[in-house]
Amino acid sequence: MRVVHTASGLVDFEKPINLRPDQVEEFRAFLAELTGAEVQVLAVSEPPRKGLSSDTEKQRWTAEGLAELVLNPNMTHRELGKLLGRGDLSIGTKRANFVPAFRRWLKDSGLTLPASRSELEDLIRQYEEDTEDEEETE
């Protein structure tokens, strides 16, 4: 965690801290005790963060986005998140579920990763159709 201190004397945290209402009071009391000063908690509004807000409509994964997960195993979640406009958690969750399942489907189908991106995207669409059919029959 980084605490940012500006030349004008303002202090802030580098990233937001998510706290329940009871934790906010505990944190306020901790800061008051630490600094010996009165600490006020002010409600402010922030612009929504792309890919991190539960209030925004869920972004559907496309074959193009899924192809990025397959083609870039060495990119971090953060790098892929910036590339795809998604949060780290979205990338990590999808990567952990999709990539192994897709590779298993390729192997079970007697297929290998194609050389071209467009062929990979077509295979991803086929995988989605096949697995959708399986889910409906279960």
Keywords:
2 strands; mainly alpha; 138 residues; single chain; 5 helices; two-stranded antiparallel ribbon
TL;DR?
With 138 residues, the protein is mostly helical.
Describe this structure in words.
This protein is mostly helical. It has two domains: 3-35, no CATH class; 63-137, no CATH class. The chain is 54% helix and 4% strand. The chain contains five helices and two strands; from the N terminus they run ββααααα. The protein has helices at 21-35, 63-71, 77-84, 88-108, 117-137, and strands at 3-5, 11-13. Strands 1-2 form a two-stranded antiparallel sheet. Helix 3 packs across helix 4. It is elongated, with a radius of gyration of 22 Å.
Please write out the topology.
Elements: E1 3-5, E2 11-13, H1 21-35, H2 63-71, H3 77-84, H4 88-108, H5 117-137
Antiparallel strand pairs: 1-2
Helix pairs in contact: 2-5, 3-4
